[in-house]
Amino acid sequence: MNKQGFTTGIVHGDRNAGGEHGGVRQPIHTSVQYGFERVEDLIGVFQGTKKGGFNYARQGTPTTAALERKITSLEDGIGSICFSTGMAGITAIFLTLLRAGDHLVSSRYVFGNTNSLFGTLRTLGIEVTMVDATSAENVANAIKPNTRMVFVETIANPGTQIPDLEGIGALCRERGLAYVVDNTITSPALFRPKAVGASLVVNSLTKTIAGHGAALGGAVTDTGLFDWSAYPNIADDYRKSPSKEQGLLQVRKKGLRDMGASLSSEQAHSIAMGAETLALRVAKCSENALALAQYLEKHEAIGRVFYPGLKSHPQYEIAQALFKGASWLLSFELRRADRMIDVVNALQLPVKATGLGDTRTLIIPVAPTIFFEAGPEVRKSMGISDGMLRLSAGIEDIDDLIADFEQALELAA
Ligand SMILES: *Cc1c(COP(=O)(O)O)cnc(C)c1O
Q1: Which domains does the chain have, with CATH numbers?
Q2: Which family does the entry's similarity section mention (predicted)?
């Protein structure tokens, strides 16, 4: 069959891969062990000579493998590995592909727990330099002889900064560096990091892809663009595989298998169901987020609004050029930070909760919660003010959302 469109590919993926009994969905395989008629086959699975086989569920099940195929297809990659959470996927990349003495350059604007993980990497002897990656020049200036990898997020949470994705891609290609892009906020429905030369793509499946706040999961996808045979940190055991496969193979063995943050079949099933409506949901959420951002920008009680779909956003042009929509993530500041608690409490629809990419609109004050532990210095360097609110736009009817803000913001007049 010809290469299918984005949503067609997801909703028919399981059936086209040969669902049992004509099932249109891959069943939830709960077996931990997988047995074989002939022991040669068991040996083949262990040695990797029998492709597509399963032996022990920590390394994957037919249900997680079906989800991995879907993510690979969504990201137009050559392979994916699913993990129990997005953080597990990110941790597996850093711990299996970097070694003590290596240097990582990261955007300064990253997810709070990723930022915290960098602290752990430093204790293990991995150097991390964080730069303002909205300029590729800042990344270039940070590169040293021991730099191995560059890490960015497509749209940073909560400030919505967008790195110079193309410029950094060109730089990494020129310097032979692995380019890791966290695509969680945009998701492959809005953007494929392969288009800017990413080597590995991370998605927290928990957010946009699962989309209903009902399952945790993460995925790492290899775009096939990076030449792992030239990467110094691949163990000899994995050098025997074709060069394109070496990176992901090492992440699967040393990361998923040895560290054990495996996705369960039940969660994989739930994520796969969410993925079926991914494109529909992000289109609606992006539309709602843009309408809310435009409404808030005009409201006298509101200071700055951070949303890449607004012409006032510093990276508006990049968002227009690279993304199919500006996503559900939007942040804004009340002019009167002292009214923040009352305003948020007055909101009836948005759920006062952390979390992102849900069908329901979620709202959270940033400084006293998700970036509390980071401390005032990190908050300042990331542009997070005390009055900043982060919103994840849901799929509700926009008139209801705006009416709700209208009444709540009266308290901040
Ligand atoms: C939530 C998030 C993660 C971590 O994902 P979990 O599934 O919650 O572990 C990583 N990166 C970004 C950008 C996120 O928003």
Answers
A1: 17-275 (3.40.640.10), 278-412 (3.90.1150.10)
A2: Belongs to the trans-sulfuration enzymes family.
